[in-house]
Amino acid sequence: MEETTQKHVLNRIRGSMTQFSEKEKQIATYILRNPQLIIHTTINQVADDLGIAEATVFRFCRRLGFKGYQALKIALAAEVVAPIEDIHEEISEDDSAIEITEKVFQSNIQAIERSKEIQNGEIIDQVVEQLVKSNGVYFFGNGGSGIVAQDAQHKFLRLGVNAHAYCDTHLQLMATSQLTENNIAFFISHTGANIDILDVVELARERGVFTVAITNFAKSPLSEAVDLSLYTVSEETEYRTEALASRIAELSIIDALYVNYHIKTSADSTAAVNRMRQAISKKRL
Question: I need a labelling partner for 102 at 20 to 30 A (CA). Which of 53, 68, 215, 235 fits?
Fold first, then answer.
């Protein structure tokens, strides 16, 4: 997780903004507005500029996954050499229907682009390896994340995988109580702070299940509770919560896992897809 966080400091700060305290938001905004200045600024100067304690700045760096302020500066120095263009545009009440539509599309594109940049190939390889070894794949999510879980089940069923999705909190616990160490469980939560999902994760760990999170926040109770985490990056606006755009990124992660699994199990997966196509062809005119 630390390697992923340090590769894309600005994106991670943007994506975590709504989880920060007021003082943390001050620091985050200061960094986003002055990334090149930060490289040549001491922690004491930042604290003085913002009127906060040095310890607060230090804790902010630790929350982002850095050992301290110096580590944050080093990561920023590598990033601002080729800064990421901020193409985000706020939606206004004065915008026309087509302008709003274009901005919504652009927000989705941006979420996918930024989420793509923070993916860790080694972690994806490990997740796919566990998927291949598993004899049962379970997807858990509540609310909008539950829809992503259902989409994941739909995709992996096509490949002949013993896939299940649960969106009801009671069914999630009931299903998890029957899982074994031969299963893999995915927990989808934008904030990574959903109490019901965390309860299911705890039970899954007790059952010896390999657990994976798909979430937007690197430092969240969920990401710290599971074996591996896959991350998204999205931003919030007045008319569009960040969870909307992150849903697109979450679906893209599921798609990536689907294709990787298909390639790893090519013969069996292709045969399963053909059986599925033959079965549903009877439902078409």
Answer: 215
Which pLDDT band holds residue 238 (cuts at 50, 70, 90)? low
Does position 6 have pLDDT exceeding 60, yes or no? no
Run of H or E residues at 187? strand 183-188
What's the CA angle centered on 83, arms 72 and 58, to 5 degrees? Answer: 15
d(CA 272, CA 217): 35
Does pLDDT of 231 surpass 80? yes
- Does domain 2-79 bear CATH number 1.10.10.10? yes
Q: For the chain, where do the domains classified as CATH 3.40.50.10490 start and end?
A: 117-281
Is the model's pLDDT at 134 over the cut of 80? Answer: yes
Q: How many helices (H) and strands (E) in the chain?
A: 15, 5
Range(s) of the chain covered by CATH 1.10.10.10: 2-79
Beta strands in 58-182 (DSSP E): 136-141, 163-166
Pair of tokens at residue 155 = 């995709």
Looking at domain 117-281, its CATH architecture is 3-Layer(aba) Sandwich (3.40)
| Mean pLDDT calculated for residue range 75-101 | 70
Residue type, 28: A
